[in-house]
């Protein structure tokens, strides 16, 4: 992704923290320094040796906290958000330093701290840990000890995917994906994109609270989490859009099976390929049980990234990550993803990373479905229909879980 799309700054990550009331800048600087001291990943740079990137863990050092004051702006909140967008779209040089902390003053009692990082050193789970740790360090509270630092885990993973256990991992995924084909997405948009049009289409719809509650209840009745429920709905939507019954999509798993890394910051996430089979006359609950079992097996074998599978394991036109499904915030609560602060994620949810990325974002008592796709491949009307179908199907299966796809 960095090689093909890195110049589009799609590999920046952000943790955004709103401080209400007075801001103790001295305490914040101290918290930022201690955060970098606590997590080796935040002070890890990368150097190229032949065709490999090698981690260089730098010793702790004071980290510059940049300060921006937009309180005198006619619309301070808008100015702050524009600065967040600029931060997210400005590349982080991982060879120099992987993080860029900034404090934005919106008003006398409203400050926004943003930690922009290269994706090499963080992921969604890590962002949640950083949000938690920063608050605790700023308040002078105690934190659990970090078990393994990232470099220790990297060495363990290398052994796991090249040692005696590797054969079982490869055999599982070859068995799961035997005969699988990529999703046959629509042809490219017939009308070329205009020069002033954005390169990416973004569509967002919210699932009603009572439907969201029904989805969680359905998950509990089927003894699973909401992730397989939302993924099963995605298979149904793709089935309706493409006519395919055998559907393989990519997803990102946390890849933290080792208890030693529960509090470790780093890029652990592993891309896996999840294959669902839709039968026209089977109840939705049957599809859900199939998806639940497939996801559970995927979790047990997530240490092997899909990129390491032999070429041609999944056949068809395109890339294996062309269609990506994610449920954000599904493992660790994200304080910076709640309430009105979801607005700050708009820039993060509009980045170009995959040809079609479908993301479900938990927000208080609702779920928000977001589709981001390549404007040169998908029309805005097609994207809107897909998300609308998804939201309507969610309501339909809550009303009748025995509903068949036909």
TrEMBL record:
Pfam assignment, any one: Condensation
One GO term describing the cellular component: enterobactin synthetase complex
SUPFAM superfamilies, per the entry: CoA-dependent acyltransferases (SSF52777)
InterPro entries, A to Z: CAT-like_dom_sf, Condensation_dom
Biological-process GO terms, alphabetical: amino acid activation for nonribosomal peptide biosynthetic process; enterobactin biosynthetic process; lipid biosynthetic process
GO MF annotation list: 2,3-dihydroxybenzoate-serine ligase activity; phosphopantetheine binding
Protein name, per record: Condensation domain-containing protein
């Amino acid at each position: 992704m960095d090689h093909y799309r890195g110049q589009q700054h799609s590999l920046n990550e952000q943790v955004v923290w709103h401080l209400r009331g007075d801001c103790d800048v001295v305490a914040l600087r101290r918290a930022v320094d201690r955060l970098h001291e606590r997590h080796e990943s935040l002070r890890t740079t990368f150097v190229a040796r032949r065709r490999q990137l090698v981690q260089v863990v730098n010793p702790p050092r004071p980290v510059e906290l940049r300060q921006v004051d937009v309180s005198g702006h006619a619309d301070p909140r808008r100015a702050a958000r524009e600065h967040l967008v600029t931060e997210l779209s400005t590349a982080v040089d991982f060879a120099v330093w992987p993080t860029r902390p900034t404090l934005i003053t919106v008003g006398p009692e409203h400050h926004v701290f943003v930690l922009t990082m290269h994706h090499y050193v963080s992921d969604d789970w890590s962002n949640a840990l950083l949000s938690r740790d920063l608050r605790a360090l700023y308040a002078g509270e105690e934190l659990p000890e970090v078990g393994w630092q990232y470099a220790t885990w990297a060495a363990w993973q290398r052994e796991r995917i090249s040692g005696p256990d590797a054969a079982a991992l490869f055999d599982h995924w070859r068995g799961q994906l035997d005969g699988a084909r990529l999703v046959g997405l629509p042809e490219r948009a017939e009308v070329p994109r205009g020069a002033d049009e954005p390169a990416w289409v973004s569509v967002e719809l919210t699932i009603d609270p009572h439907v969201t509650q029904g989805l969680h209840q359905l998950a509990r009745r089927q003894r699973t989490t909401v992730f397989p429920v939302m993924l099963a709905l995605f298979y149904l939507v793709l089935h309706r859009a493409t006519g395919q019954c055998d559907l393989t999509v990519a997803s990102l798993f946390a890849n933290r099976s080792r208890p030693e890394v529960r509090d470790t910051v780093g890029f652990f996430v592993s891309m896996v390929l999840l294959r669902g089979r839709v039968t026209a006359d089977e109840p939705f609950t049957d599809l859900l049980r199939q998806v639940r079992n497939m996801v559970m097996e995927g979790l047990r074998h997530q240490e092997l990234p899909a990129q390491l599978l032999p070429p041609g394991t999944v056949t068809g036109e395109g890339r294996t990550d062309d269609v990506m499904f994610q449920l954000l915030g599904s493992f660790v609560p994200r304080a910076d993803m709640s309430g009105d602060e979801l607005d700050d994620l708009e820039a993060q949810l509009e980045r170009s990373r995959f040809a079609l990325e479908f993301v479900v974002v938990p927000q208080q008592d609702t779920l928000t479905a977001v589709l981001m796709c390549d404007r040169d491949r998908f029309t805005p009307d097609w994207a809107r229909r897909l998300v609308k179908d998804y939201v309507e199907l969610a309501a339909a299966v809550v009303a009748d879980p025995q509903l068949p796809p036909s």
